[in-house]
Write a structure and sequence with these properties.
141 residues, alpha+beta, Alpha-D-Glucose-1,6-Bisphosphate, Chain A, domain 4, 7 strands, 44% strand, globular
């Protein structure tokens, strides 16, 4: 399953990048992930981010591994659980009216293939859209 969402943020790319990569301020704007913690203050290649998210009524713990960081251009991270893995590629593209941020998340594993009701695409899409909307609000303020 692949879910792609984009949002136009009316802010300078430096502001958007700093808002996204500064983990110390995620609690102030990120309504999708809670209890975000890392040994690093900023997202960096090779770092790990621990958090909770709530795709259903109960929270799910996630350990995110940051695979790639190309400043002001792209961040790629992944997470794995039993029977499930997710890889998210965030791209940051300068636009005449700000920055176009695109999230392309790929979900794989037997839970996705065989038991799609455990990971409904509609719910996952709404979470990704909410994360991008949160980023927009924080970056434009």
């Amino acid at each position: 399953m692949v879910i792609e969402e984009s949002i136009l943020i009316r802010a300078d790319i430096h502001k958007v990048w700093k808002t996204f990569t500064d983990l110390t301020c995620w609690k102030d704007w990120n309504t999708v992930m809670s209890n975000v913690c890392s040994d690093e203050k900023c997202i960096a290649q090779g770092s790990e981010v621990r958090c909770n998210f709530r795709p259903f009524f109960f929270p799910v713990k996630a350990e995110i591994k940051v695979e790639e960081v190309i400043p002001y251009e792209r961040i790629v991270w992944s997470a794995r659980k039993k029977g499930f893995s997710a890889r998210n590629r965030f791209s940051f593209q300068k636009h005449e009216k700000g920055v176009l941020v695109t999230s392309r998340e790929t979900f794989t594993g037997f839970i996705v293939r065989g038991f799609g009701f455990f990971l409904p695409a509609k719910r996952m899409r709404s979470m990704i859209a909410a994360f991008l909307k949160d980023l927009k609000t924080a970056s434009e303020n």
